[in-house]
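Researcher: We're teaching a course module on how sequence relates to structure. For the next exercise, students receive a sequence and then see the predicted structure as C-alpha cells, so they can try to spot secondary structure elements on their own. Here is the exercise chain.
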Amino acid sequence: MFHTQRGLSPATAPLGVARGDQADDLPGHTGTKGTAVDISRSLFETLKNLCRILGAAHVDHCLIGGLAVGILAKPRATEDIDLLIHIDEQQIPSLMALLKKHLDVIHEGHVMHFPQATIWRTLIGTPAGDTVVVDFLLANHEVYREAVLNPIKLAVDDVSIPVVNRELLIKIKELSGRPQDLLDITSLKEK
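Model: And here is the predicted structure for the students to work with:
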C-alpha cells in the first residue's frame, strides 16, 4: 500500500520548538490550552506519534519546515508540523483512516494544490487539549522525492524521526520563497 521507508545516517539532536496560533481560523480548531511549554510538548509528542505511525506503515516521510530548521540550524518559533510524505494523492484516504485509528483527528483537511507543492492539512487533538496543525506535503517534486528518500535519522526516545538534510531543506525553502523561508535559508547557510 505504501512505499518502503529508507534512511541514511543515524544522529541525535534536541528539538527546541514553540507554537503560535496558526490554526485559529481553521475549521474544527477549538483554541489551545496551557502554556507555550505545554504546547511545545504537545507539538513534539504529536511529531513522535506521527513518525511512529508512519514508520510502522512503511510510509516514507521526513520532517521539513520550522522544526527541521530548529534541528539543523537554530531553534525558532513554529506553529505546526511539516511532514513530507511519499504517497500518491489517491492514498490520502487510506492514510487518514490509519491516522484516525491512532490519533484524535479533529479536522480531516483538504488537499491544496500550489505551483510547487501539494499540501494536505490536518488538525490533531492532543491528550493535553491542544490542537496541532500538521501539513503533509506530497513528495511530487524531484527535490521532495530526494529529500524523503534520503533523510537524516534522529533517535528520540524510542522513535526514529527522519529529518531532511540541510542542503535539501535549503532547496525546498527556495521553491517556496516566502519571507520566513528566506530567513530560514540564511540561518541554514550560517551554521
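Model: If you want an answer key for the exercise: The radius of gyration is 15 Å. The beta strands are 10-11, 61-64, 80-85, 104-107, 111-113, 118-125, 131-138, 152-156, 159-163.
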